[in-house]
Amino acid sequence: MSEITSSLNGPVEYELQPGKKYSWCQCGRSKTQPFCDQVSHKGTGIEPKDFTVSQTRKVWLCMCKQTKMPPYCDGTHNKLKKN
Ligand code: FES
Question: Domain residues for 50?
């Protein structure tokens, strides 16, 4: 398995729509962050996290890729070393 990478330290606010399928980038390599671009994770052994919501929700999506509650920010980014 390749290492998870992300140069972004902190979540992004996003409004999720019910009935829509989302695919959150878990490897950090996607060119369409915070979502999977269906290409960049190939060969890493890291798969995107697919999810849906049942109602419109404003959420904070993790961009550091270290959250324990994917795809949502759980504050872990605050404990990471900053470059
Ligand atoms: S951005 Fe907050 S836990 Fe990853």
Answer: 1-65
